[in-house]
Amino acid sequence: MKWYQLDVDQVAEKLNVTMDNGLPVKQVADRRKKFGANVLEEEKSTPRWLLFLKQFQDFMVIVLLAATLIAGLLGEFVDAIAIMVIVLVNGFIGYFQEQKAEKSLAKLKELSAPIATVLRDREWIKVPSQEIVVGDVIRLSSGDRIPADVRIIKSIGMEAEESALTGESLPVMKHTNGISRDHVDPQDQSNMAFMGTLITRGSATGIVVGTGMNTVMGQIASLMVKTKKITTPLENKLAELGKILIFVALALTALVVVVGVYQGHPVYNMFLAGVSLAVAAIPEGLPAIVTVALSLGVQRMIRKKAIVRKLSAVETLGCASVICSDKTGTMTENQMTVKEIYLNGKHLYVTGDGYDIRGDYFLNKTKVNETFPNLQSMLLYGMLCNHAELHVKKGKYYVDGDPTDGALLVAARKIGLKPEHNEYRIVKEIPFDSDRKRMSVIIEDNNKRRFVVTKGAPDVLLPRSSFFMGEDGRKLLKKEDKSHIDHAINQMAEKALRTIAIAMKPLSKQDALDTTFIENDLTFIGLYGMIDPPRKEVRAAIAECRNAGIKTVMITGDHVKTARAIAENLQLLPENGLVLDGNQLNQMSTDELREVIDQVYVFARVTPEHKLKIVNAFQEKGHIVAMTGDGVNDAPAIKASDIGISMGQSGTDVTKEASSLVLMDDNFATIKAAINEGRNIYENIRKFIRYLLASNVGEILVMLFAMLLALPLPLVPVQILWVNLVTDGLPAMALGLDKPEEDVMRRAPRSPREGVFARGLGFKIVSRGIVIGLVTLLAFMLTYQNDPDNLVYGQTIAFTTLVMAQLIHVFDCRSEHSVFTRNPFENMYLVLAVISSLLLLLVVIYFEPLQVVFHTTFLSLRDWLLIIVFSSLPTVLFGFTKK
């Protein structure tokens, strides 16, 4: 039912309710049974035990579980326990993250008002909001949160703050008249009040027409339930890597068993040898290192005013190609500001943004002050015809009241005007009304002189004005004067400035104070032009994102003209860029939107469904989408996007719970810093994947070649596990702390389809791995041939050569180009990690109780010279090449 189209009497008739009596109490239970309780439902939740088990279905986790089984079969119970601990820690992290993310609907429920005032059997009573039913007549007052969707039947200057639901930056004035048009979106249904929004001014009476899931808020809740979660690029790549490693491990095990049995070795021995190779193929510490690297990135981002709620979000930001940003409060200050004044037939320009009282007035390029004709009077009138209050807290100004009234107060303070309550007394007030579109106050000063001040829409005040105030005093308002004022209004409108007119009229004590008299024959003073200004740092952030190949798109509930002006001011909208509004989106199919989406930079007058449609269209074009916002209306699109970003200060709890990243300072520029961090983290993940897998390839090949050459095993399983879990772990983690390379924000976003081994990484892993394996095998063969009876000595040389080759190779992994392009001491964490791993190696070699466990023996200085020469060869050979 389109309740906004019906007259008040028709609404009451349809719902079978008398406006003066309310619902009979005996009907309430029947209606609740018919329409349902006034609560937001949620889909059936997954049992906690099943949610926990789902954390172990990832391929890399399966690899780790296989490694645990293998370590147990080999009798290495300490290693098996260590791997199991890693698996459980990862599982618990994922479990708690999912539980936290699914609190969105619970937060939506909290937005429902706890108590409502309803009329039943001619008596006003207070009831819990969940007990409201369709047809209830309810009373709404300033400060109330609206408990259900309501058709307004009586309004006394009521305004509702709906930005959290519709994205509209200004409070919406409510009226009672029916709206005849079809397909009117909620932000334009000015005779309706919606569940979860806040009344900022006035009062009203209404009839409840929608409760629970049948409200606009309920539709958003439904969208959030139906919105599917998507896996991140990093999760996809690690799953892909897990599959590869499983295949390699199984293939190697089968190959070794077949070759060994063919050569006449016992099946059991060959199976253990194959298992050793499988252990070598699996980088047991990789998922843990990925988690640690992301966690460290999270800590760095907190210092940059960004809180990460989902670890994978850090990396996903690095491949974002589109940022869909809400305008109000994200790109703008969410603080109305007077930017221009039309006075004495001239335009004055006002500096300063937001509620900061610092600012000046300029006529062209000449600064003017309170001595400029009529300026002080105009600002005083704006301050007197006003309900807002300006306060300061910790050196920062904020407005208590309507943002438009707040803008007028700030404009007055910029020339030093302050309200003196003992100097002026309000005799009478005629409040603002959506039909009247004006507000008037009758003022009496200390000298008992009275005058009326009226402010409102220019098209309302101008016909009621007979005079205008010029530099030489009050003059008769002629046709050409009205034409000049109309021209000024149009000029301001083209700049997307909201215009408010101010007028006054002197009164005598004998004058009647009725509305008809005091609001006619006014003296037109001037026009205020105001706008919600862009944040200062956003323009530079958008430019940096553009240089990084990232498109910024503005999505707002505001009017097209306002959105376009802000976008042009921010240099977001290119010359041929398109601007679409909600009506155009309604008429476009998904396919049609997908065809033009890459040319669109601004979406205006949009609904939550539109935002979801926009995000999906970009995703279908292959983009990785970051969606920012602060209101409830943004939550479904934030949840559906690849990376959801909410505002920490102005954002609703619902939006924060649906997002992956929360900006503590509500600053769009922080997103740019987050993208920089995300890109660097992904590059660092590539570095330690390169390091770990090249090391593992070396381990695999040294074992495989030895078997093919019918040599004894150069490494025993416990040595391989030691290398994978201990020696490799610290340097790999230190790679995760590497600083970004200089050009990280001048590269295009990587494709989400880019594989783990893209950009030559696969070749680097295999080529370095082959050489590491060959030098380790050569060192073993030289030692073993000289002393065939001392296998432990040969295995110690091989073990030490492998570890040293890896510790030297780790510095090669810091750059995509060459080991010589970066200073090794830039990353002191890596230097310390290598020293720590070297010390652990020395302990295993020279501490006698451990020699038995790890099959090692003492090495001489001559042995170390051999080891250093062989272990340096891989890095020296590849140090001068970019491949």
What does this structure look like?
This is Calcium-transporting ATPase. Its main location: membrane. One of its GO terms (biological process) is potassium ion import across plasma membrane. One of its GO terms (molecular function) is P-type sodium:potassium-exchanging transporter activity. This protein is α+β, with helices and mostly antiparallel strands and 883 residues long. Helices cover 46% and strands 18% of the residues. It is built from 32 helices and 28 strands. The radius of gyration is 36 Å and the shape is elongated. The two termini are 66 Å apart.
Features:
883 residues; magnesium; 46% helix; Calcium-transporting ATPase, cytoplasmic transduction domain A; 32 helices; transport; Calcium-transporting ATPase; single chain; alpha+beta; elongated; ATPase_P-typ_cation-transptr_C; cell membrane; eleven-stranded mixed sheet; Rossmann fold; eight-stranded mixed sheet
Task: Look at the helices and sheets and give the structural class.
Answer: alpha+beta
The number of distinct structural domains comes to 4
Regions with pLDDT < 50 over 5+ consecutive residues?
104-109
CATH architectural name of the largest domain: Up-down Bundle
Number of helical elements:
32
Mean pLDDT: 83
CATH class of the largest domain: Mainly Alpha
- Give the percentage of residues in beta strands: 15-25%
Instruction: Give the CATH H-level superfamily of the largest domain.
Output: Calcium-transporting ATPase, transmembrane domain
CATH topology of the largest domain: Calcium-transporting ATPase, transmembrane domain
Shape: elongated
Summarize the main sheet: 11 strands, mixed
Q: Indicate the multimeric state.
A: single chain
Distance between the termini: 66 Å
Number of strands: 28
Radius of gyration: 36 Å
- The percent range for helix content is 40-55%
Membrane topology: Multi-pass membrane protein
GO cellular component, one term: plasma membrane
Main location: membrane
Organism: Lentibacillus populi
